[in-house]
Amino acid sequence: MSTALLLAIATASIVILLLLVIKAKVHPFVALLIVSLLVAIATGIPAEKIMETIMSGMGGLLGHIAIIIVLGAMLGALIEASGGAESLAQRFSKSLGIRRTVAALTMAAFILGIPVFFEVGFIIVIPLIYGFTKVARVSPLKFGLPMAGVMLTVHVALPTHPGAAAAAGILHTDMGWLMMIGLAISVPVGIIGYYVAKAMNRRQYHLSVEVLEQLQMAKPEGAEKKNEPAPPGALTIAGLIVVPILLIVLGTLSHSLLAADSLAGKVMTVIGTPPIALLIALALAAWLLGVRRGWSKDKLEELTGRAIPGSASVILVAGAGGAFGKVLVESGVGKALALTLETLHLPLVPAAFILSLALRASQGSATVAILTTSGLLTSAVSGASDMERVLVTLAACFGGLGLSHVNDAGFWVVTRYLGLSVGDGLKTWTVLTTLMGVSGFALTWLVWALV
């Protein structure tokens, strides 16, 4: 199949998907499956492999995020029901004021994003976002958009994450320089993202019924029920949120600090994985927020069980997004796009950025876009200096930051948790990630010009 036809099919598939979701009001899960099937048929994937490809894409993604989303939702439900998120939010708001609280949480999200995967970190901070939203009586986008933006920035740009680390290996980039320059550029990119999100929040967006129900659950100050224990302290809630983050960080560090076959190394490898870290935090929350404060086992079961239906929609839609991305990869759309851009003979830095950005838009995964771009540029950087390799790698990484849209599982996680419709998600999250990606590329190219 010709390159032009493959690209036309990919473009048509995204248009059809948007029409189904926005105009026809088809549920995104169903719409993604329909479009995945249409693309598989149109691009000639063998009939016996169509469902295998769709299930592989969905199963591969859900294997990574389903447990995390459910455990994160349960942890959030316990923190929410105890009044802990609001307690922490009130403490911060009184100390800093709302404006400085948004900036402080955005900085915290930047630090959190360095060791923790984007989806994991975002799910961990969702109870905080809801808690601050209720206290400040503002849209969750005020806190959620800038926090998600900076977390995704460090996820793609720093070699503590698989995309940048693997790209450094493919292009033989110095990891230390990549970390230092990646951090130096990510800071102003995060600041730009903060102000872009702030500008976006001047407009009102319609939130989903599910999120509105979550935000309406807050009780007025001083209106606690009779015989109900006082909300837990702000430090207790902060500790419960920090525990999984700390365990994940220690698990990451243990690979380089401890022998892999030692008992300590094995223990840290297990408890440092995101699902186990969240499971430990959930157990601590059940004890500290529930049992110790007089909750019965039945109440704990009810609260954790109630969190599952709400997370099911996020899981299914994200999984269907993974299926769509897998079909696009298997159909050869990504390779066709890469070959098209390669023939344009652009300078190295813009070529890396544009190629990665186009691959990100076409198949959804930032990591796949970064790795594919790095593989295509291997021969092009053969005569480049160490610093030039670092900058080419970063340009590819920032390309993977932009154009997060309907074929990206992260798009669905962010928009569903923040209560955005698909149309508003494209106007906010997609625009935000793209502007941050372009900013990162512009700064990288500026450094290239200076060196």
Give a concise summary.
Keywords: Membrane, Transmembrane, Transmembrane helix. The protein has 451 residues and is an all-alpha fold. It contains 20 helices and no strands.
Description:
- By secondary structure, this protein is an all-alpha fold.
- The chain is 79% helix and 0% strand.
- It is built from 20 helices and no strands.
- It has helices spanning 3-23, 28-42, 47-82, 84-96, 98-113, 118-136, 141-157, 162-171, 175-200, 209-215, 234-257, 263-271, 274-290, 297-331, 333-342, 348-363, 366-376, 386-399, 409-418, 422-450.
Helix content: over 70%
DSSP summary: helix tally: 20
Taking the sheet with the most strands, its summary is: none
Overall spatial form: globular
Structural class estimated from helices and strands: mainly alpha
User: How far is the first residue's CA from the last residue's CA?
Assistant: 43 Å
Strand content: under 5%
Pfam family, one: GntP_permease
Protein name: GntP family transporter
Keywords: Membrane, Transmembrane, Transmembrane helix
Transmembrane segments: 6-22, 29-47, 59-81, 102-130, 177-197, 234-258, 270-291, 303-324, 366-384, 390-414, 426-448
Write the layout of secondary structure elements.
Blueprint: H1 3-23, H2 28-42, H3 47-82, H4 84-96, H5 98-113, H6 118-136, H7 141-157, H8 162-171, H9 175-200, H10 209-215, H11 234-257, H12 263-271, H13 274-290, H14 297-331, H15 333-342, H16 348-363, H17 366-376, H18 386-399, H19 409-418, H20 422-450
Helix pairs in contact: 1-2, 1-15, 2-3, 2-14, 3-6, 3-13, 3-14, 4-5, 4-6, 4-11, 5-6, 5-7, 6-7, 6-19, 7-9, 7-20, 8-17, 8-18, 9-18, 9-20, 11-12, 11-13, 14-19, 15-16, 16-17, 16-18, 17-18, 18-20
